[in-house]
Amino acid sequence: MPRRSLDSADVRRHNLGLVATTLARLGPRSRSELADATGLTRGAVTSLVGALVDAGLVREAASVAAEGRGRPRTLLELTGDDLALVTAAVDADHATAVASTLSSQRLADHRRRHGRPMGDPAPVVDALAAVIADTLDDLRASGRRAVALTVIAYAPVGGDPPVVLADTDLAWGRVDLVGLLRERLPDLDPTLAGGIRLVPDATVAALAEHAAQGSPADLLYLKSDSGIGGALIAGGELVTGAHGIAGALGHLPIVADGVDCECGQRGCLVTVAGPDVVLAAAGLDAFARTDGLDAALDELVHRVRTAEPAAAAAWDDAATWIARAMQVLAMATDPGRIVVGGYWAELADDLAARFAANRPQVDGRGLDGPAVVPSAFGTDAPMVGAERAMRIAVLEDPLALTAPTGS
Q1: In this predicted model, what pLDDT tens digit does every residue of 64-83 receive, in sequence order?
Q2: Which ranges constitute the DSSP H helices of 108-160?
């Protein structure tokens, strides 16, 4: 008897999470549509929805007239307005933290430059802790409670518990970013029912872009913002590799006998097409130091589009190598689509033309595809992807979110 009770509770918890995550994934749906989407019976969905409504996580949103003589459909949507998810990121220039509701309403947004102290994580983590603390203060002032935190590192992440494996943009080796964050915010864990996650930027960005592209089976994501990164999705699944670094595309050794890279290789793509290299060649490195990397990259794009000579020449050199890397990766992985993100999204047409100009021939004809398309989210892709993944993860056990885990 006790065993059956435990199994029944586990099944109900799973099904509650299934209904909640389906609403998060598909948006407002009726009870009958939820039954069709989840495979649960309509009676089971009605009971589960009732529990989620009582917990304040779901509400009736609107009635939609039925086609023909049918009854109107009542749509359900996620709410949980007193709960919040916090997404934080640290790149080569800034620490950022944002908060949103379970239904994706933005609640707070804090950003701080850390000065890029190369090789010293402490000031960078100080800035990260500060923006997270400011965000949590905003939530408390509005009567809301943070239930989960995701920290995005613009670098490879691995291990158990996860750590930053290396960050060449900041000259870091192995860094326990979450551990350092906990030292600065010792009261963080007790309030987070959904826990703390550390994720690499390119992975969550690629998952967001994959969904935005209609979830094709095979997709290559390649981007540049604070560095160069990317990811490969094959058969609908993210390829991580034996060491978790399969998406470190900035360190594809593309230049024979090239210059030394901080990763230990020679001739990496980032050494000829990384943002620091392109900005320096365009005469914008001082601009980046004073105004920040994001502003400098925006200015670079503007100058390339207006054919300013130094910027155009710098981009031409870099784009040649970027297109070559895309050609190598396309032949190695045969993706159905290539998505270019970060600031490259603004120059995707040029990259697509360069890529198409050097494709293999089959029976005297050029091989079709893959299409090269700009990112749907640009530089926001990591935040979008991390927030979406966190929302799905915490909603897998939705009733655990309705009561604080500590003081």
Answers
A1: 766 656 677 889 888 888 88
A2: 121-141
